[in-house]
Amino acid sequence: QSALTQPASVSGSPGQSITISCSGTRSDVGSYDLVSWYQQHPGKAPKLMVYDVSRRPSGISDRFSGSKSGNTASLTISGLQADDEADYYCGSYAGSSSFYAFGTGTRVTVL
Amino acid sequence: EVQLLESGGGLIQPGGSLRLSCAASGFTFSNYAMSWVRQAPGKGLEWVSSIGLSGSNMFYADSVKGRFTISRDNPKNTLFLQMYSLRAEDTAVYFCAKPITVAGRSGFDYWGQGTLVTVSS
Hints:
The structure holds two protein chains of two kinds.
Chain A lengths: L8 E4 L5 E6 L11 E6 L6 E4 L13 E6 L2 E6 L8 E9 H4 E4 L3 E5 L1
Parallel strand pairs in A: 1-9
Antiparallel strand pairs in A: 2-6, 3-4, 3-7, 5-6, 7-8, 7-9
Chain B lengths: L2 E5 L2 E3 L5 E8 L8 E6 L5 E7 L6 E3 L7 E6 L4 E6 L8 E8 L8 E4 L3 E5 L2
Parallel strand pairs in B: 2-11
Antiparallel strand pairs in B: 1-3, 3-8, 4-5, 4-9, 5-6, 7-8, 9-10, 9-11
């Protein structure tokens, strides 16, 4: 069971768009359209932003969008805002043996 | 309103045991697989364990397999994590998490506030 790979940090200016990648394998990201993305502010519980690759839970802004190609998933945040500054984690179903895996996490900084 | 309230964390010596509980409310608990996720201080999220609707299917991360046991009491809407042979590397905030879909594979839309487990002599 290995963590999915994310860049340690991504930054952008207010109003810009940024994309966070999440690299997995054929055993997890590549085999299932069950990738999710979480936002976590310091000292808070994670918040689900995207699930099933590109679906947004109720109440989540459409500035957050997800996609997947092969073994790599991506989260794009458009119209970057100050409150988007947080840690972001991807997650994926990994089959009946490993069940679930999280990414290594990406710190998003709004310049 | 969905609520998940963890309890049972604390300071425990290496090799010790601890039982975490998660009291759920605001949804039909027995209709959802449930999970535990942990986060070591200053580190990322780590999936720990998941349990199916009836409690007959359990899944564990390799790092805790053979030492942790997940269980649930559906009539009491409560999720448990029994932890044995605790190690320093088990030190973390432990979150109870509800999946957005009943099968539990699509991601977690509700999380508890977390309970801190510190393993230290």
